[in-house]
Amino acid sequence: MNRKQEQQIVDYYSTANKYIRSKTHSNAHQTVFTKESDKFQWLVLEQKSQCEVEVRQTDRHGTITARDNYELTRNIPKCVGVERLCEGANFQIPFNADEINLIYQFGEQSKAETCASLSAILPQVKDSNTKQIVSTTLKKLNSLSEESCMELIATTKRRKLTERDHSIKARLARAKEQQKKPIVTERKQQKRKAGIEL
């Protein structure tokens, strides 16, 4: 994992109180980031293989609240697994890609608002598979603490927006715009030269 990929992942999890690289706790297998104001809140990036990284996030008590997995095969790290700690229990709840997409689309400013938003669309969904996905997502979000739920929503939104901005469609559109600019400038220069020659 290069520094750019590492920083991109850290940015997904950083809030107003950003993570800072800890030289003391980092080693050859994992990079540890801590928060300046709290010695227990860690973000650990552990290289599992050449193309795989596991990210673990801890709360103020040092408990692992998030465990996500990334692939490093593209221009930006691609999230391939998301887990959050169940409130009042000692196990992680996995979220699949469909559930993460729902959280991205319907995530609000609080857990209650997000759950209300998902509950509101549930009666409108006609497809039984989609209805099951919405229902399961709602159940999983309700089993998270408010803090963990809000962190999941914020991280998901930052990650999805970055993926959208770096998607091949977005890059092609930007490249197409760049190609148009020199042509317009070149034509203006040709017109000026033609005017001078006359």
DSSP strand tally = 7
Write down the overall geometry: globular
Task: Give the helices and strands as they follow along the chain.
Answer: HEEEEEEEHHHHH
Helix content estimate:
40-55%
Mean pLDDT equals 88
Helical stretch count?
A: 6
Structural class: alpha+beta
Note poorly predicted spans: none
Computed over alpha carbons, the radius of gyration is 22 Å
Distance between the termini: 60 Å
Strand count, sense and barrel status of the largest sheet are: 7 strands, antiparallel
The proportion of residues in beta strands is 15-25%
**Sheet with most strands: strand arrangement:** 1-2-3-4-5-6-7
Structure explained in plain terms:
- This protein is an alpha+beta fold and 198 residues long.
- The chain contains six helices and seven strands; from the N terminus they run αβββββββααααα.
- The chain has a seven-stranded antiparallel β-sheet.
- The N and C termini lie far apart (60 Å).
- The model has no long low-confidence stretch (mean pLDDT 88).
Topology:
Layout: H1 3-13, E1 19-22, E2 30-35, E3 38-49, E4 52-58, E5 64-71, E6 78-85, E7 92-95, H2 97-106, H3 111-121, H4 128-142, H5 146-165, H6 168-197
Antiparallel strand pairs: 1-2, 2-3, 3-4, 4-5, 5-6, 6-7
